[in-house]
């Protein structure tokens, strides 16, 4: 198996440096042209692929251009308009509720604080972090999605299991200047090489520092189960 560097800080920095070389153009893969579109896209992306979200929002964003448009629509109509998105019925309700709150409490604008964003239906800390980073250029945390959760455990950057706890661990070891890009780098690597059930360790630029590398290791540290 690979041998992680002596400290988690060194490990995190080395991971970031290597992945920057591997994925120099790493960035968010959702399509949007405004803060509202970003917010809606990220809410829809929960447990759904970005590719599918981009397909659905191409028409959705033409039909609904302001918060008041979502507020005026019924949950059923919105669910129909996002059919094909995972949990489209629930998310139709989220979009209608988001439209109402933005219209009534924020003059139709997307707020720029963690507390105001997480008060919106369907918006947790992960979604709020994405909106703050890419909509408002405010970086105050690390977005922990399933790829970040899996890879940060495999690389022994954390032993935590819950996204909130993983984020707190990562904030202590990832350079603050890399908090935003860290997520995109791990997402790209997770999609290309280090999948949940298809880790290609032979092709991995991190294999020699990864304690989960399955050439020698019998255990996937992300799941605690045997490879």
UniProtKB/TrEMBL annotation:
Pfam families found in the cross-reference section: HHH (PF00633), HhH-GPD (PF00730)
Bilayer-crossing regions: none
InterPro entries, per the entry: DNA_glycosylase (IPR011257), HhH-GPD_domain (IPR003265), HhH_base_excis_C (IPR023170), HhH_motif (IPR000445), Nth (IPR005759)
Cofactor binding, per record: Binds 1 [4Fe-4S] cluster.
Residues of the HhH-GPD domain: 44-192
Gene Ontology molecular function, alphabetical: 4 iron, 4 sulfur cluster binding; class I DNA-(apurinic or apyrimidinic site) endonuclease activity; DNA binding; G/T mismatch-specific thymine-DNA glycosylase activity; metal ion binding
Family assignment from sequence similarity: Belongs to the Nth/MutY family.
Protein name (database record): Endonuclease III
UniProt organism field: Haloarcula marismortui ATCC 33799
Source taxonomy: Archaea, Methanobacteriati, Methanobacteriota, Stenosarchaea group, Halobacteria
Gene transcribed to yield this protein: nth
